[in-house]
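HUMAN: Can I see a protein plus its fold?

ASSISTANT:
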Amino acid sequence: MDRNELYHIVGLFLLAMMTLTSDFSSLTFPASIFGSIAFFISFAVMILAPSYVIADAVVGLTQR
């Protein structure tokens, strides 16, 4: 994984952390749907981003 790709993954992870800590309960109907979608996408990013970095590290170690 090159440095630019790692920066993108870390940026997505930090954005997901900010989204998960936001309070979307005060939003009205159209925006509340987008808030719910953003919550589920952020939850998936919080799981997949570290998994991707760990998998890349394991592959890098096994190819040496």
Remarks:
- The mean pLDDT is 89.
- Residues 24 and 46 are 18 Å apart (CA to CA).
- The first helix runs from residue 3 to 21.
